[in-house]
Amino acid sequence: MAADPFIDLLNAQIGHEFAAHQQYVAIAIYFDDLTMPQTAQLFFDQAAEERNHAMMMVRYLLDADARVQIPGIAAPINEFPDVVAPVALALEQEKRVTEQINQLTALARQHNDFASDQFMQWFIKEQVEEVSKMSDLLAIVRRSTHDLETIEDYVLREVKAEATDPTAPSIAGAAR
Prior knowledge:
The protein has five helices and no strands. The radius of gyration is 17 Å and the shape is elongated. By secondary structure, it is an all-alpha fold. The protein is about 70% helix and about 0% strand. The chain starts with a helix and ends in an 18-residue tail after the last helix.
């Protein structure tokens, strides 16, 4: 059984993941409105990924026979002054999630909750990739603020859809 403090913090993290989902949808819509389909799709894909992360956490709690409590979330930011702001927000969000994942891992270890520690390892790897992706995108967007086609070309050329990871945790509600 997962440690009670870990369960509480993981339930809170489910809310953070759903909030990230909503924020990425808002960012995708912003880029779609600018007729930047490649960048919009990148963020629609990121949104789906964040939702799946939340549902992986739900599945883990269900499998651990722990209570699941889906928290409410605040509204996302929907308006941006320029193309840099939403990407900077995305990077900030990924760094914040990395800290949250690290806190969850540390808490599991503190309580000798080895199953939860192992569960969190996949998310640690995932966050390294996400921070790197958003850091690179932010550098390109900052250099190309007034050349949206360069941003679109970069996303098309460099940002590839992630292959299915057989080591990823199960997603609650996904077809098995």
